[in-house]
């Protein structure tokens, strides 16, 4: 069983610069055809300072923090037993290419179902650009015990 004392566990703050090449690659990967996500002139013509960050890209950027599974190691979770449960996003503002974003994560819940055969770990992440909140990300992993 995952120790519920990990609720409140905070990850180290990390920062990422949003790169235009990453945004263009991501737009292609999700088959985004709106040119504002790949053509800077189109983004500026639409009133943006640069390429806007597509909605789910922040989750990918958060995973680009080195060992994104280190918290699982700390909690004693075997990666081979982990399933992606869900993710959600709440936006407060937009982010753009060349922004430097800060990510602060913590474990906000741990619970079990099916008599402990499935354990759920909920991680919340606040994303800021300077002092401006950009989004809250929530991801849930499921740990299977057989």
Tally the helices: what do you get?
4
By helix and strand content, what is the structural category?
alpha+beta
What is the alpha-carbon Rg in Å? Answer: 17 Å
List low-pLDDT spans. Answer: none
Inertia-based shape: elongated
Strand content: 35-45%
Q: Major sheet: order of its strands? A: 1-3-4-5-2
Q: What's the CATH topology label?
A: Thiol Ester Dehydrase, Chain A
- End-to-end Cα distance, whole Å, is 12 Å
Mean pLDDT over the full residue set: 94
Number of domains: 1
The CATH superfamily is: Hotdog Thioesterase
Number of strands: 5
Largest sheet: 5 strands, antiparallel
CATH class: Alpha Beta
Helicity, in percent?
Answer: 10-25%
Secondary-structure element series? EHHHHEEEE
Report on this model:
The chain has 146 residues and is α+β, with helices and mostly antiparallel strands. The protein is 20% helix and 36% strand. Strands 1-3-4-5-2 form a five-stranded antiparallel β-sheet, covered by helices on one side. The two termini are 12 Å apart. The model has no long low-confidence stretch (mean pLDDT 94).
């Amino acid at each position: 069983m995952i120790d519920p004392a990990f609720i409140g566990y905070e990850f180290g703050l990390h920062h990422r610069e949003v790169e235009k090449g990453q945004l263009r690659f991501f737009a292609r990967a999700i088959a985004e055809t709106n040119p504002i996500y790949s053509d800077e002139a189109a983004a500026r013509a639409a009133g943006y300072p640069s390429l806007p960050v597509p909605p789910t890209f922040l989750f990918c950027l958060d995973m680009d923090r080195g060992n994104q599974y280190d918290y699982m190691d700390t909690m004693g979770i075997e990666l081979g037993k982990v399933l992606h449960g869900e993710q959600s996003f709440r936006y407060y503002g937009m982010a753009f290419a060349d922004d430097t974003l800060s990510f602060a994560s913590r474990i906000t819940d741990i619970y079990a179902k099916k008599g402990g055969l499935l354990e759920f770990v909920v991680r919340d992440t606040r994303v800021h650009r300077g002092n401006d909140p950009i989004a809250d990300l929530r991801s849930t992993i499921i740990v299977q015990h057989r």
